[in-house]
Amino acid sequence: MNEHAVASLTGLNLRYGKTIALDNINLELPAGCMVGFIGPDGVGKSSLLAIISGVRKIQSGTVQVLEGDMKDSGHRLSVCPRIAYMPQGLGKNLYMTLSVFENVDFFGRLFGQDQAERKTRIAMLLESTGLAEFRDRPVGKLSGGMKQKLGLCCALIHDPDLLILDEPTTGIDPLSRRQFWRLIDHIRQRRPGMSVLVATAYMQEASQFDWLVAMDEGRVLATGSPAALLEKTGTDNLDAAFIKLLPEEKRSHHQELVVSPRPIQIDATPAIRAENLTMQFGSFTAVDHVNFEIRRGEIFGFLGSNGCGKTTTMKMLTGLLQPSDGQAWLFGNPAKAHSLETRKRVGYMTQGFSLYGELTVVQNLELHAQLFHLPARQIAGRVQEMIDRFSLADHRNMVASNLPLGIRQRLSLAVAVIHKPEILILDEPTSGVDPIARDGFWRLLVDLSRNDGVTIFISTHFMNEGERCDRISLMHAGRVLACDAPQKLIEQRGNATLEDAFIDYLEEAASEDISVLKLSTASVPVSAGHAVLSSKFSLRRLFGYAYRELLEVMRDPVRLVFSLLGSVLLMMMMGYGISMDVDDMQFAVLDRDQTPESRDYIQNIAGSRYFTMRPDIKSNSELDLRMASGEVSVAMEIPPDFGKDIQRGKPVEIGVWVDGAMPFRGETILGYVQGMHYGYLAQLAKQKYGKAVSMAPANIEMRYRYNQDFKSLYAMVPAVIPLLLVFIPAILTAVGVVREKELGSITNFYATPVTRLEFLLGKQLPYIGVSMLSYFGLVALSIYIFGVPLKGSLLTLTFAAFIFVTATTGIGLLMSAFTKTQVAALGATAITTMLITVSFSGLTNPVSSLSGAGAVIGHLFPATYFLNISRGIFTKALEFKDLYVDFMALAAFIPVLIMLSVIFLSKQEK
Amino acid sequence: MQRLQNIYRLGIKELRSLLHDRILFILIIWAFSGAIYVVSTAASQELHNAPIAFADEDQSVLSSRIINAFYGPYFKQPVMISNAEIDQGLDAGIYTFVVNIPPDFERDVVAGRRPDIQVNIDATRMSQAFIGASYIQNITNSEIATFLKGSRPESEPLISLVPHVKFNPNLESTWFASIMELINNITVLSIILTGAALIREREHGTLEHLMVMPLNVPEIILAKVWSMGLVVLIASWLSLQLMVKIVLQVPVQGSVSLFMCGTLLHLLATTSIGVFMGTVARNMPQLGLLMILIVLPLQMLSGGVTPKESMPEFVQLIMQIAPTTHFVSMAQAILYRGAGFNVVWLSFIAVFVIALVFFAMSLALFRRSLASAE
C-alpha cells in the first residue's frame, strides 16, 4: 500500500440484485488532499464513498482505509472515530424536528464527549459556520445551505482525519456553496493532514480540487489532477473533458448545443404575467411579492437553490395553489379562475418526473392524451408522433419505473406536451441527469420553443442551463433578485460568469436579509487528539440515542397521540365492544292461549334483565319475518289451552325459537331460557305443594369465583391491558427503528462508534417510558371509568407491567430487524402481536386448553404470563409470592429478545 | 359525458396500478381466501378443551361415573386433586372448573337427601365459564339420573320446553365466523386500497399532475371510488361463492345479489372513508397508524363481533353513524336469515345516506388539503 494513500481499493465489486453498481474498482486515493469524484447520478459515486467510510458492506475486493482492512470489524471500530461521513441529500443524516444545537449535541454524545467538551466545541463550530444565531431553530426550517453547514458541523465535532462528503452542495444556492468550500478550506488550513473525499455533480467545483476520479457506470474513467484531465482530453472545461472521457458509443450522438436566437416576435399579450405574487404558509413566506412577465415563445429560466420558492411560484401559476396575495395571468386570463380550458393550453412537468411508474410508456402517453380529450381518432397518431420525436421507440412497452433516468425525463416531457400546449412549465427537469442526456433534453426544448413557438418556463439550479435561457430571473428566499437576459446580468455586474453575478446579487441581498449566512471569521476549533477512544459499551452514547428518540417522539404529533392515547382509546372500545355479556335480548311471544297462566309464564321471562319484551307476535309468518329481520332474537309459542291443560295436569309443550345466526349468543340464550323455565317450574311446584320441591336428586351449587356478578367487563379489562401493552409498544418501537432506515439517518449508526446494543437499548428506552405512561392511563381507565376494582397491589402490577413492556418493546426491536419500510414494520408487528395475543395467550381460551403448535406459541409469548399476573392481581388479589413463576418467565424474555435483536441487526449497510 | 369518460379512464389507470402493486394484490387475495378459512376454522367461541378438576371426597361408584362422563372435545381429561388444592389451582389459572363431590354423596343421593355438589368456576374466563357451567350441570344430572334409573319413579315435568334454533340449527361457529370475516375484510380492504391509492399518487407527485389537467376533484375521487370498490366487490363475490359456499360448506340463506347491492352501497361509504384518511395522513406509516385507531372500532363495535344489543346505549347511538353497523345488520339478515329487501330496506337507506355524507366530507377535505399543500 502506498504510504501516501488514505485509502486504497483493489478489485472492488458491488451489485444490487442484478445491477452492477461498482465494477472492479482499483484506486489509490492520495492522503492529505481534496479528492473529488465526478460523474452523473447513479454511476456509483455514493456507493463507493459509503464503502470507504465503512457504512456499506464490502461484497468483494479489498479496501484499505487509514492503514487497515475495512473488512475487519475490529479495524472499523478503531478507525471509526477518525472518519466523518456526510451522506447525500440535504440534511439526510440530520433530524428535522430537532434544533440545530440538539443535532450537533447528539453527534457529540455519540463520540463520547462530555458535556463541557460538547458545549465548547458546539459553540465554536456554530460560531465559525455562522449558525450560532439559529441555535434553537428546528433543522426542518433551515435553508438547504444551512442544513449542509450544520451537517458539516456534525461531521467535524470529533476532529476526523478523513472527511467524506457525498454531494454536499447539490441544490444549494451559489453563495452558500462558495461559503461551504471556504469553510472546508479553513478547516484544511488548520488541519493540513486531513484528507477530504467529495462527490459532486458540479464540474466547476471539481476544478478547484486537488485530485479527481471521473466515474461512469460503476467504472473509473480517469484519475488525476484537474489540469491533467484537461490536458489529456484537450478541452478547456471539465464538462467537456468528462464527455470526452466517456466511451465512444455514448458520446457518438453528442454534439455541442447551440441555442438559436429567438425570432423577433410580434408583441401580443404576455404568455405569463405575475404581479406581487405572494405565498404564505403560516408564518413562513415562501414567495414574497414576485413580479415577472414571460413573452410568448420565450425560454424563461428560474434560477435558485432548493426551497427558494421556485416550485411554489410554478404551482401558483398552474393553479395548484391559491396565492395569498397578488395575481398571475396566463394569456391575459387570471390564473385564479383557472378554467379547465386554460389547463389545456398548459403543459407541466413536476419535479422528479411524476409518471405512473406502473404503466408502460405507451399507456402513460395514451392516458394523458385521453385525459386532455384529444379526439379518439387522433390519439394513436399523436402517441406515435411523440414516441418518434422523443426517441422512445425502443422502450415503448416498458413500464415507466424501469426506465433509465434520462429516458424517463424524455417521457415526462413527451407526456407534458402531448396535448400541444402553448406554455410549458418545467420544474427542475434536469436534476440528476447526466450531461449528455441534459444536452439532448435541451435540444428538444429549443426545438419546441423555436419551431413550435411554445413558451417555456423552466427552473433549475445549474448555472450553465441558466445561460441557455433567453431571459432568467435569479431567485432567493422567495424573492426575485434580478431578471434579465443572462448576458446582460453578467455585464451589469461586471462579472465573468453568471455564477459570480448571482453571488453578487445574493451578497447584496444579504445585507438586508438574515437568511443568507455570513461566514464568521472565528477560527475552526482544532483539538490536539482524540479524547475518547471507542469503548465496548458507553452509557453516554446509549443515552444520546434515547434522548434524541424521546425528543423526536415528543415533536411528532401523530406518533405522540398514538403512543399516549392509542391504547386508552382502544381500551374504551374493547371494554365496551368485546363484551361476552348477552343481555337485553329482543324477545316476543306468540300467545295462542291468552289466559292468566300463559301471561304468568311470559312474565317470568320478560321480567328478567336478559330480555326485553317486544310487541306480541300474531302469526307464524310474522314470527318468521321478525326473526329474519333480526328484530326478535328469541320467540316463544304458547299453545292453545295452555292454562286449561295445566289445570288438568296434562303435559304441555312450549316452543322456543332462538336466532342461531350468532352461535355464541344463541347458545347463551338457550341456557337462559332453560334456566328460567326450570325456575318457573320450581315456583309452580312451590305454590302447588306449599314447599320447595326439586326434581333433581342432587343440588348442584355453582360458585362463580373472582367475578361473582359474572360481568364480562371484570374479566375483559385485566386481559385487555396485556393485549394493548404488546400491540402498541411493539409497533412504536419497530416503526421507530425502521423509520431511521427509511429516512436515511440510520447512517449515523453505521458511521459512528455507537454499538448495536447501545443503539437498540437507546431506541427502546423512550418507548418503555411512553408505554409505562399509557399503562397508568389504562389502569386509571379500568378503575375509574369501567369501575373494575383492583383487588391486589398496584405496586406489584406496575412492576410486572414494567418487565412486560420492556419485553414487548423488545419484540418491536426484533421485528424491526426483519423489515425495511415503516409500513411493513407496522403491518408485520400488528398482525403477529395481535394474532398471538388474541389466539394463543389465554385472552379468550386459556393456554391450558390449547394443544399442538398453539400451545407452544402460547408458552413462548410474554403476554401469556403477564395476562396471568394481571388477572391474578386484578381479580384474585394474588401477591408476588403466588405469581413469582410468571414474573421469572416474563423477565427471561428480555435478555433473549435483545440478544436476538443484536444478532440480527447489521452494523453496516448491505 | 366527457366527465364520465375521465372517471372511467382514471379508474382503469388505478386498476392497472393495483395490478403492479404485488403486496396489495397478495393482500387482497389472502384476505378473501386464506384469512377467511383460517379465522372460521380456528378455535371457536364454543366450549373446547376446558380444563377441569375434581376433588372427589366420596370415591364411590356414582362419583367416578360422573367424573368419567367428562371428556373431549368439550373438556380436557379431568384431573383429580385434593380439597386443599382447589384454591391454589384456581388462583394459578390451571383449571377453569373444579368440582367438589362431598363425602357420602352416593349414599345421600340414594336416600333422597339431595346432597350438594359444589362447582367452582373461574368466572374471569368468560368464554368457558357460562357455557361450561350448563354443560356440567346437564352431564352431572344425567349421570345421576341414569344411576338412579329404576330405583326411583321418574317424574315427567308438567311443562316442557321444545327449543328450536333457527338459521343455524347446530350453532356451528364456522357459519358465523366465515361471513363476518368476509364482511370485515370488505370494510378494511376497501379503506386500505383507496387510502393507499391516494397516498401513492401523492408520494409519486402524480396528484399535482392530475390537478393541472382538465379534470376536477370529484372526477379524481370518483375514479378511485369506483375502481377500488369494484375490486373489492368482485373479490367478495368470488369469496362468497367459492370460499364460503364451496370450501367451507356454509349454506347461505338469502339472495346473494341483494347482498351484493348492499355491499355496493357500503363500498361507496368505505372508499370515501379511505379517501378521507388518505387525505389526513401524509404518508403510508401515518395511514397505518390511523387505520388501527379508526378501522378497529368500526369493526368491533359494529355488532359483527359481539351482539350490538349488549353494548351500552351511548355506544350504540354513536355507532349509528358508522356504515359498518348497518352493513353488518343488513348482511346478517340477508345471508343468515334469508331476509328480503322488504326486511332490510331501512339499512339500505341508512348506508346510502351515510355514504353520501362521507363522500361529501372527503371531497371537501380533499379540496382543502390541495389548497393548503406546501
Layout: helices, strands, pairs:
The complex is a heterodimer of chains A (910) and B (374).
Chain A: E1 5-16, E2 19-30, E3 34-38, H1 45-53, E4 60-65, H2 73-79, E5 83-86, H3 100-110, H4 115-129, H5 144-156, E6 162-166, H6 174-190, E7 195-200, H7 203-206, E8 211-216, E9 219-224, H8 226-233, H9 238-245, H10 248-251, E10 272-281, E11 284-294, E12 299-303, H11 310-317, E13 325-330, E14 333-334, H12 340-343, E15 346-349, H13 361-371, H14 376-389, H15 405-417, E16 423-427, H16 435-452, E17 455-460, H17 463-466, E18 471-476, E19 479-484, H18 486-493, H19 498-510, H20 539-554, H21 557-577, E20 585-591, H22 596-606, E21 611-613, H23 620-628, E22 634-638, H24 642-648, E23 652-659, H25 663-689, E24 699-705, H26 712-743, H27 747-751, H28 756-785, H29 794-818, H30 822-840, H31 852-859, H32 862-876, H33 880-904
Parallel strand pairs in A: 3-7, 3-8, 5-6, 6-7, 12-17, 12-18, 15-16, 16-17, 20-21, 20-22
Antiparallel strand pairs in A: 1-2, 1-4, 8-9, 10-11, 10-13, 13-14, 18-19, 22-23
Chain B: H1 2-20, H2 22-32, H3 34-41, E1 52-56, H4 61-68, E2 79-80, H5 85-91, E3 97-101, H6 105-110, E4 116-122, H7 126-148, E5 159-166, H8 173-203, H9 206-211, H10 217-247, H11 256-280, H12 284-300, H13 313-318, H14 323-336, H15 341-372
Parallel strand pairs in B: 1-2, 1-3
Antiparallel strand pairs in B: 3-4
Question: Can you give keywords for this protein?
Answer:
heterodimer, A: 910 residues, alpha/beta, six-stranded mixed sheet, 33 helices, B: 374 residues, abc type-2 transporter like fold, four-stranded mixed sheet, 15 helices, 5 strands
